[in-house]
Amino acid sequence: MTRQAEGTVTGLIAGYYDVQTSEGLIRTRARGVFRQKKQKPAVGDHVEIQIDDQGMSYLVKILPRLNRIGRPAVANVSHVLLVISAVQPDFSVALLDRFLNFFSWQKVQVTIYLSKGDLLKNSDKLGQIKEILAYYEKIGYPVYDDATKLAADLPNLIAAGQIWTLAGQSGAGKSTLLNKLKKDANQATGEISQVLNRGKHTTRQVQLFKMGQGFLADTPGFSSIDLTPIKLNELCNYFIEFKKASSKCKFRGCQHLKEPACEVKRLLAAGEILPARYDDYLAMRTEISEGRLPEYLK
């Protein structure tokens, strides 16, 4: 006699899947049928497991996915908590825009967290960074720079069944932040390579941690984001302030380049669109049209 149960994959350890169900956490293996179909369950997948009278269980079905992001992947991501460092590695608007547009393309909302601001305390550089981030907050991205406030707010922000994932370049401080958000996470943290100005990967697998009514995932750092699969004429839609302004452009499908009566260009000239955002838009268009990553990301 067997019975079925549904749950969420919260971890993968040595070929076993940890599945959080209404009955509790069940460690199980996947049926061989997934190998035959060249499928692999991912952390975050909503799955069906089969349990027999002896308590033996197998993962037998992957339920429809919302999305699948990253390597190793997290499935069904509702929201990204994007960690961007002030220093070590240095703050980069270009990198921030790459992440934001990648996740916009994936139809995933983003909250920005600025890490390591304490290393620039009372400096002009920190003030400049916060001024830039105030623009992102104005166009619709929630921004935090205080881990204590974020830890207090986050459980109320994650709705039932939602999966939020930490993301950001290697060494930005994702695991350090997770340790503050989830005291029992005990994630490894690493030193920054001063030579490469790039962090060592301290997280090598994905794990979901219970947070609020949903889950928070820690993932390995992204060393680069590949935007080349995005369709060139759709890129402008992933800059949220461009998309909002485009309804007032003279031409439908305006690419905000040399078209007359372009609202995005008008706002740019009026100082209401951050010039660096528009420069990044042009750089991303070149990258997509050439079908290759820019040299600085290789």
Describe the structure.
InterPro entries: G_CP_dom (IPR030378), NA-bd_OB-fold (IPR012340), P-loop_NTPase (IPR027417), Ribosome_biogen_GTPase_RsgA (IPR004881), RsgA_GTPase_dom (IPR010914), RsgA_N (IPR031944). One of its GO terms (cellular component) is cytoplasm. Belongs to the TRAFAC class YlqF/YawG GTPase family. RsgA subfamily. Its EC number is 3.6.1.-. Zn(2+) binds at residues 249, 254, 256, 262. Helices cover 27% and strands 26% of the residues. The protein is globular. The chain folds into three domains: 2-62, Nucleic acid-binding proteins (OB fold (Dihydrolipoamide Acetyltransferase, E2P), Beta Barrel), CATH 2.40.50; 68-218, P-loop containing nucleotide triphosphate hydrolases (Rossmann fold, 3-Layer(aba) Sandwich); 232-297, Orthogonal Bundle (Ribonucleotide Reductase Protein R1, domain 1). Helix 2 crosses helix 8 (275-290). The strands form four sheets. A six-stranded mixed beta sheet has the order 10-9-8-11-15-14, sandwiched between helices. A five-stranded mixed beta barrel has the order 1-2-3-5-4. It has a two-stranded antiparallel ribbon with strand order 6-7. Mean pLDDT is 87; it is low at 187-203. A hairpin with a 4-residue loop joins strand 4 and strand 5. It is of the alpha/beta class.
Task: Name the descriptors.
298 residues; alpha/beta; OB fold (Dihydrolipoamide Acetyltransferase, E2P); Rossmann fold; Ribonucleotide Reductase Protein R1, domain 1; 3 domains; six-stranded mixed sheet; five-stranded mixed barrel; 8 helices; globular; RsgA_N; rRNA-binding; ribosome biogenesis; RNA-binding; GTPase activity
